[in-house]
UniProtKB/TrEMBL annotation:
Keywords: Metal-binding, Zinc, Zinc-finger. It comes from the Eukaryota. This is CHHC U11-48K-type domain-containing protein. InterPro entries: TRM13/UPF0224_CHHC_Znf_dom, UPF0224_FAM112_RNA_Proc, Znf_C2H2_sf. It holds the Pfam family zf-U11-48K. It comes from Phrynosoma platyrhinos. Residues 6-33, 40-67 form the CHHC U11-48K-type domain.
Length: 85
C-alpha cells in the first residue's frame, strides 16, 4: 500500500491519516476514544481495520484484504502487511 494513502480513522470520521502513520494514530486515538474503542473489533485479515461490532460480519465478507490470505503448506496463513516507513 502507498504510505501516502489517506485512511479514515475508525474512532473519528473527521480524522484522515496517512497509511504509514495509521498504526500510531490508532494507538493514540484509541486512548482518547475508549468508549468507541470498546465497540470496535479488529479485522482478522488486516490488523489496521477496526470495525464496529454490528458491521463485523459484513466486513469479513467484503474486506479488501481477504485476498491476502493464501494457502501455504496446507495451512492458511494471514499476512499483516504493515508498511515500513
Ligand atoms: Zn483518530
Ligand atoms: Zn478488514
Amino acid at each position: 500500500m502507498d504510505p501516502e494513502t489517506l485512511m479514515q480513522c475508525p474512532y473519528d470520521k473527521n480524522h484522515k491519516i496517512r497509511a504509514c502513520r495509521f498504526p500510531y494514530h490508532l494507538v493514540k486515538c484509541r486512548q482518547n476514544n475508549q468508549s468507541v474503542a470498546k465497540q470496535l473489533v479488529t479485522c482478522p485479515y488486516n490488523a489496521r481495520h477496526r470495525i464496529p461490532k454490528e458491521q463485523f460480519n459484513l466486513h469479513i465478507e467484503t474486506c479488501e484484504h481477504k485476498v491476502s490470505i493464501e494457502p501455504y503448506g496446507g495451512k492458511r496463513m494471514i499476512y499483516f502487511n504493515w508498511s515500513n516507513c
